[in-house]
Each structure stands twice: as C-alpha cells, then as structure tokens.
Known about the structure:
Blueprint lengths: L2 H9 L6 E3 L2 E8 L2 E8 L3 E3 L1 H17 L5 E10 L3 H5 L2 H17 L4 E10 H5 L7 E4 L4 E3 L3 H8 L3 H8 L9 H7 L10 H8 L11 H8 L5 H9 L8
Parallel strand pairs: 3-5, 4-5, 5-6, 6-7, 6-8
Antiparallel strand pairs: 1-2, 2-3
Helix pairs in contact: 1-9, 2-4
Amino acid sequence: MNWRELAAQLFGADHDIAENEAVLTGTARLDGQDIAIVGTTEHVAVGVETALAQAGFILDTIAAHPGRPILILVDTQGQRLRHRDEMLGINRYMAHLGKSIELARMSGHRVIGLVYDQALSGGFITSGLMADACHALPDASIRVMGLPAMARITKVSEDRLTELAQSNPVFAPGAENYLAMGGVASLWRGDLAACLREALGGEAGPARDLRSQLGAERGGRRLAANVAAAVASDDDTAPA
C-alpha cells in the first residue's frame, strides 16, 4: 500500500500530508483531534538529510503543538550505506532522530509507529521501534538483518539459519514474526482508522517497554523478559 492510499483509509481527505524527497510530513485529523504525521516512503535509505528532516519536524511539533500525538509512517530499506554519510557521522544523525522521538514522549506526546510497507535495519530501529508502540500492516516486510547478512556475521550457514527460521521467529522476517517477538504491538486489518483510534487511546508520556513481555506471552522470545528482570534485580539465577 502506498502512503496516499494509507492516508485516505486513515483520514479520508482530512490531512495535508506531503512528500518531499521521500520524507512525509503534515497534519491529519481524526475525531476532531490533530495528529502530527512524519515518516518515509519509496523504500528510502535513511541518510543524514532524511534523519535530520524527520527530527526537525518532531522538534517543531514539540515546540509549537505541546501534547499533539505523533504518527510515524515507516517505509525504509534501512540506513544509507554511503561513504559520504559515514564521514558526516550518520550514526549521530540517526541517534538525534531517536532522541527527538524520546523527547516527544517525555514531553507528553503519544507516539505511534506504523510500518505500512517495508522496514529494515537502522532506518526502522531509530523510527518506528522508538515509538511508544509500533504496529504494522499484515503485508509489511520487516527485518532488522537479512539471513545472508546474518550468516556472514554469525558464521552460521545460511541454510541452517533458513531452517531455524521455520520454527523460531527471531531468525525470520515478516510482520507476523515481529508480532510474535513483541517488536510489533499489533497488525492493523480492516478499519485502519479504528485501529489508529485504539492505538491513540493509551496514556501519553514515558511508558514501560512491554516488548520482551509480549514476546514471552506470544512465544516468540521466551527468555528475554526473564533475563531482563533478573539483571534488573541483580539476580544471578537467570537462565543461560
């Protein structure tokens, strides 16, 4: 689904979302409430300009519209892999984007992420995954690391990783697997405006991260919540 179709299903004609060099910004209205919209499209690789543009819009929203909910629309192939961006310090630009989202949350803004097309690696980690909760459309393509790259990093054969991915969501891409791991809070089907309305119903401001707990409940990450709890309590009996 492209962003225009998505916006029509979410808000009808009641929005002024615009695209500028694959960055989406604007304002929409749902049930009489203004919502700040920011995100990406065209499977863009997030570079220094892309990260800075999104962060700037979020900071402007915090300054000019205190408490206004923010919806982050995610469609990215990940971090831009160019020498220029690396030399300019893309890691700091992406950290700036992530910290801007955290500042919005701490300032009382409800922040919702929605993967509507593709979400890969660093471009996803510093946008949708920084939200209070990240949701996805069922057909969205989500992965932080592809199996070929994972094989190179872990030195485990791609065939073995493909085999593991059949039964373990940690090794497998896709919205359903990220739902099982708790990285995605829910899949939006049917009435998308109703899904957004429900997501916005949560409390604004800093919230407890429930992803490891959801992963345990859904069977996608069985140990993360227990290990985190044991570390937090200085318990040395955490499972190996």
